[in-house]
Design goal:
Elements: H1 2-26, E1 29-40, E2 45-58, E3 61-77, E4 87-90, E5 97-100, E6 107-125, E7 130-140, E8 144-157, E9 162-175, E10 181-182, E11 197-199, E12 202-218, E13 221-234, E14 242-246, E15 257-262, E16 268-282, E17 285-296, E18 301-312, E19 318-328, E20 338-339, E21 357-371, E22 374-387, E23 407-419
Parallel strand pairs: 14-20
Antiparallel strand pairs: 1-2, 1-23, 2-3, 3-6, 4-5, 6-7, 7-8, 8-9, 9-12, 10-11, 12-13, 13-16, 14-15, 16-17, 17-18, 18-19, 19-21, 21-22, 22-23
């Protein structure tokens, strides 16, 4: 009995010790919170709040959960071209209409949405050199839902100066547009007019692959390179976008709209990108330069250059200005308008996001340590997007209008990070 009693005491002590050690490890929790305000001049405004929580289960495992909520409102281009007289468009629901004044890009002022997203990731250290993660994510809007899973593996080499990583993900999306899914090249209906639809909803699937390598060049220089491949299949149209069919040059009013047709994009898309980054420490400061080249089988390619410079002051506050430059070419099937008498090509869109354009972003972030493990971050960005105001293929009255008005936007972000 005495022996059993001693064993019981030892077992209780062992269990208590294990619980206490586990509790000490479990205290490592990092919280990141962000509030973003975004505003385009005369167009879209948005607000987004996000909270990310990373919790260490023990020395080899951690979980991370992120919650995001955003709301958008304002006016968004519907794809139609300007005209010399008032244009009237039926709202996506089919109930109601809106008027666009002469000479300006038509904007749908009913653009309003909110989105909730949640993602979770479990990371495990398999050994001293190997790491593994698996995750899932969900987001929902009133007309769109997305569900995805992802996993990845990384291994360190060369005295942990080099890391090779691979990750894959799969996403299944469903779109439920107001009024149903439009038939490609169908005419935009008049208010109250019945029209055929492909159905109440449509689906899309996305498969992604990422290969990466991170190399420590020396004690002050870090280099990273990634290659990503994405394959999308299913419904890839924007159900709210259409394009203008305008009178031809032999008519009395060349360039004036006759009707509007819903766009049509391919039902598959392959995207590729190569990303390189170099980060260098300079007397306590940090310079971060990256370049990304993107191309796909829709004919789009783009270049992105990002430059950050972080000033680290003695009181642990930091100031980080940055500049970003972006340029892309147009999709093979992008047209500003369709001339009457020309037959529909296999695919057509007038969505400015698939046209040729450039953009510049200027930003500044200021970080202030509040306590030992608390940091406040304030950042401001100015975004300017510009394209071809008079692209090829225009005729008649269209030559008088700015087909790609410069877009200006500002972003203000407040972040608060802490650990406990």
């Amino acid at each position: 009995m005495q022996l059993n009693k001693q064993l019981s005491i030892k077992s209780a002590l062992a269990i208590a010790t294990t619980v206490l050690l586990g509790a000490q490890i479990a205290k490592a929790t990092d919280v990141e919170s962000t509030l973003l305000i975004y505003s385009e001049k005369d167009r879209v405004s948005a607000g987004e709040g996000a909270v990310s929580i990373k919790h260490e289960l023990n020395e080899t495992q951690n979980i991370k959960i992120k919650l995001t909520f955003d709301a958008l409102t304002g006016a968004s281009p519907n794809g139609a071209a300007p005209a010399s007289s008032v244009q009237t468009f039926t709202r996506p629901s089919g109930n109601g209409s809106y008027d666009i004044q002469p000479g300006i890009i038509p904007l749908d002022d009913t653009f309003k949405d909110s989105r909730f997203a949640v993602s979770g990731t479990y990371t495990r250290k398999l050994s001293r050199l190997n790491n593994f993660f698996i995750g899932a994510n969900f987001s929902g809007e009133h007309d769109y839902t997305s569900l995805g899973v992802n996993t990845g593996f990384s291994r360190d080499f060369n005295n942990r100066n080099r890391t090779i990583s691979v990750s894959v993900s799969f996403t299944s999306d469903k779109v439920n547009p107001e009024g149903g899914v439009p038939i490609p090249y169908d005419t935009l209906a008049l208010i109250g007019e019945s029209t055929s639809r492909l159905g109440p909803n449509a689906t899309k699937k996305v498969y992604d692959l990422l290969l990466g390598v991170t190399q420590t060049i020396n004690r002050n220089t870090l280099f990273r390179a990634n290659y990503s491949r994405s394959h999308s299949t299913g419904y890839l149209n924007d159900p709210y976008k259409f394009f203008s069919v305008v009178e031809n040059s032999s008519s009395a009013n060349p360039g004036e709209p006759l009707t509007y047709l819903y766009e049509n994009r391919p039902d598959a898309r392959n995207k590729n990108s190569i990303y390189t980054q170099c980060r260098k420490f300079l007397n306590g400061n940090v310079i971060d330069l990256s370049y990304r080249f993107f191309w796909d089988d829709w004919g789009i390619n783009s270049h992105t250059i990002n430059l950050f410079y972080l000033f680290d002051f003695k009181n642990n506050t930091t100031l980080e200005p940055h500049i970003r430059w972006y340029h892309q070419s147009a999709a093979d099937f992008y047209i500003p308008v369709q001339i009457d008498g020309s037959s529909n090509q296999q695919f057509t869109t007038a969505d400015y996001r698939l046209s040729t354009f450039s953009a510049v972003t200027l930003g500044l972030q200021y970080s202030i340590p509040m306590q030992a493990t608390h940091t406040l971050k304030l950042s401001f960005e100015y975004y300017r997007q510009f394209g071809d105001s008079s692209p090829p293929g225009l005729i008649g009255s269209l030559l008088r209008y700015d087909m790609f008005p410069t877009l200006n936007a500002v972003m203000f972000r407040v972040g608060y990070n802490f650990s406990f």
